[in-house]
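# nightly structure sweep
# worker-07 picked up a monomer target from the shared queue
# config: single-sequence mode, recycle default, output format = structure tokens
# input follows
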Amino acid sequence: MISALYGVLLALLICGLSLNVIKARRKNKVIYADGDCKELIVARTAQSNAVDYIPVTLILLLLLELNGGNVWLIHAVGIVFVTGRVVHARGIINESLKGRVLGMQITLYTIFALCFLNIVYLPFEKLLM
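# output follows
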């Protein structure tokens, strides 16, 4: 499964972002929420945004694969999405609005592309069985 490769890469990204949250919690001795600590707010924002967008995109990528999408197309979409998520996470962590905007543009365009591609590759003949 091609989508498993991108699932693994994105899970590693989430783990890295989670480790940033843990480090910020320990450093600032914050047990719950963000404790009004800017470092922790930033770390939690990067992590939660990734968790918001990664699952639905992985589901769409898997569906494209199951619907018989072209192997290279699946890889291309996966690479673009991972890149967008890394750019966005770095934008948040480095407090770069430009990075955040670019990362979200890549993310949303990828989701829209996957929606479109899943319709194109949808096996309509099997829907009526």
